[in-house]
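TASK: fixed-backbone design
INPUT:
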């Protein structure tokens, strides 16, 4: 219940007596025994659509770690700092958000700002929101925050001007907060409740109000498209699939709850997907079965001419799934097929069937034989230098899905049995492949990873690692971040866990500010070899003082580790600092659960640890005299400045 000011006096959730007592009792058991686990609970939370029950579950799950609810090891172990700031009472969103984040394998520390303080909290550098230091800031708006209280339905011109002024104020405050703090800020389009729409009684007036309101939402969407660090979810479009009204007038009038529980749940799950994107947890590889998955029928029985594809049901369902997969590939998701089939007829269909949408060049691997599919997935992960937790596996066979899920619990398994008309929706929901933005590198990712498989095969042909590295002919190019490489650097810092010196990300807005500052420098690292370019695979964030440079963070994709690239990059930075007149290079390292592979770089390069020990957060700032720093670049690597290549 809430009092007249919108202050919560009891639980915002009441699923009713006896509703799913079993689920809530299992959650209570986790509290009663701190060592207890319930590995299937995360999946059940993800599948549950009862908003009130999930809200109650989210309240009970406060303080319970995600590792106790899932079979798979977590990809991120540090709690994510998430702030919720709203123009209305959003207490009910918090437990739903917690449940959605736990279902996604994310621990979170959630900060709820005071009621209707969104603008002030964003704008005040000393606000409680700024002090919390959120990595993610969720900005929740309702129509009352935009519409004037006494708006005149018969004179929409002044209403239009006020709406634009208010939305511009909110988007500017969000962008300023993102730039100042490095937080990823999420806005959303605002649905217009039915009473507001019905207040305009003329058909032409209703059309005008609809146009004006969509211009407002277009401005919110534009902010998420163009402003660094700001993103927008199209909540208005999302709610077309959510039954019921946007708000319950009794709840709104009594406690300023602007959304019904169903809307709160839809938003919470979309916000959790956004958090997965911010932390780089979107899946990167989609492995698809063939028979009754990419096409209808069984190739071995029906032959290439007998499989179902095309424009008529059910073949059009499989064609649509291929179109969806192709769209994912064009945005950077790697596609592979894994089928129990003979290879020759599979190759024939992939290359020559007139109704196939996916072709061999769209696939990073084709695995067609009679080997176990879980072994194929594990082998492909090794060849691509990716964890199996980056994989999605889709198959129509319950047996195959069960075997992969049991052997590789980190893999997201999608069962595509039943009516094929539902296959595309099953694959795309929830947002498994979510990412903050697409870059030029994403479009080339399939070719890049095909080359990676070739490198892996070359490495197995050389008994000596150095001979293999010399055979690669590695070329490292380093240069200042520009308009093309900066979005990729921000993405890379978010996604990289193993070779991320601090385990943190600056975010795109702060990265751009540092890149434009004379007191800082952001470098992009590109790698190429005999098999082609790897693209932008690393970045360095630097502070520049006259006598001392500091490496704030150094990030390198795992796909180029163990080649000496990190030593070559550090040598480049040291040379650059020395040429600028600096005598000392400092480099920060903060240990995390995932970045152990990076821990040895600075000590092995001759950097010394400080005598006063690490900071409170574990950060150690190593230091080296540039005059005494030994040569670091391995003899099998050639390093060049990006500027030199551009002017050659």
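OUTPUT:
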């Amino acid at each position: 219940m809430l009092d007249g000011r919108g202050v919560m006096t009891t639980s915002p959730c009441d699923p009713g007596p006896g509703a799913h007592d079993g689920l809530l009792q299992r959650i209570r058991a986790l509290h009663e025994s701190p060592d207890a686990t319930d590995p299937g609970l995360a999946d059940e939370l993800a599948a549950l659509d009862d908003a009130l029950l999930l809200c109650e579950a989210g309240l009970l799950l406060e303080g319970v770690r995600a590792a106790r609810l899932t079979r798979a090891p977590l990809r991120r172990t540090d709690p994510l700092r998430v702030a919720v700031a709203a123009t209305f009472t959003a207490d009910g969103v918090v437990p739903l958000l917690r449940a959605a984040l736990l279902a996604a394998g994310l621990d979170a520390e959630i900060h709820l700002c005071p009621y209707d303080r969104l603008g002030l909290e964003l704008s005040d550098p000393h606000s409680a929101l700024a002090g919390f230091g959120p990595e993610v800031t969720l900005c929740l708006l309702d129509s009352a925050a935009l519409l004037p209280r006494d708006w005149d339905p018969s004179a929409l011109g002044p209403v239009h001007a006020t709406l634009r002024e208010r939305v511009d104020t909110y988007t500017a405050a969000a962008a300023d907060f993102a730039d100042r703090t490095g937080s990823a800020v999420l806005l959303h389009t605002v649905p217009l409740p039915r009473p507001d729409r019905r207040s305009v009684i003329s058909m032409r007036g209703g059309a005008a109000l609809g146009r004006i309101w969509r211009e407002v939402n277009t401005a919110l969407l534009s902010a998420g498209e163009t402003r660094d660090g700001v993103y927008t979810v199209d909540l208005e479009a999302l709610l077309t699939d959510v039954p019921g009204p946007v708000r319950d007038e009794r709840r709104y009038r009594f406690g300023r709850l602007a959304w019904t529980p169903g809307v709160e749940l839809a938003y919470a799950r979309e916000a959790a997907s956004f958090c997965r994107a911010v932390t780089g947890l979107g899946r990167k590889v989609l492995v698809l079965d063939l028979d009754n998955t990419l096409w209808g029928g069984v190739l071995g029985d029906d032959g290439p001419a007998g499989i179902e594809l095309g424009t008529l049901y059910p073949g059009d369902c499989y064609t649509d799934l291929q179109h969806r997969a192709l769209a994912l590939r064009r945005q950077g998701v790697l596609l592979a097929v894994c089928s129990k089939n003979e290879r020759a007829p599979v190759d024939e269909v992939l290359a020559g069937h007139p109704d196939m949408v996916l072709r061999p060049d769209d696939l990073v691997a084709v695995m067609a034989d009679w080997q176990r599919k879980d072994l194929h997935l594990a082998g492909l992960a090794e060849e691509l230098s990716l964890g199996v937790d980056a994989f999605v596996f889709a198959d129509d066979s319950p047996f195959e899905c069960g075997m992969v899920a049991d052997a590789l619990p980190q893999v997201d398994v999608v069962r595509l049995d039943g009516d094929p008309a539902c296959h595309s929706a099953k694959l795309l929901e929830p947002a498994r492949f979510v990412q903050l933005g697409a870059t030029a590198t994403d479009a080339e990712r399939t070719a890049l990873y095909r080359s990676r498989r070739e490198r892996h095969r070359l490495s197995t042909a050389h008994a000596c690692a150095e001979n293999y590295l010399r055979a690669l002919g590695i070329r490292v190019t380093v240069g200042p971040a520009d308009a093309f490489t900066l979005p990729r650097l921000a993405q890379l810092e978010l996604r990289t866990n193993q070779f991320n010196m601090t385990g943190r990300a600056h975010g795109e807005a702060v990265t751009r500010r540092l890149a434009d500052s004379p007191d800082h420098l952001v470098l992009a690292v590109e790698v190429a070899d005999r098999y082609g370019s790897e693209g932008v695979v690393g970045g360095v964030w630097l502070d520049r003082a006259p006598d001392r440079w500091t490496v704030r963070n150094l990030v390198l994709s795992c796909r180029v580790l163990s080649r000496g690239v990190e030593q070559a990059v550090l040598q480049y930075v040291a040379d650059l600092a020395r040429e600028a007149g600096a005598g000392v290079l400092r480099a920060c390292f903060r240990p995390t659960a995932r970045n152990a592979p990076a821990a040895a770089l600075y000590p092995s390069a001759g950097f010394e640890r400080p005598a006063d020990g690490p900071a409170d957060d574990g950060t150690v700032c190593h230091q080296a005299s540039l005059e005494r720093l030994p040569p670091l670049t391995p003899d099998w690597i050639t390093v060049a400045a990006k500027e030199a290549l551009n002017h050659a």
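COMMENT: DSSP finds 27 helices and 17 strands in the chain.
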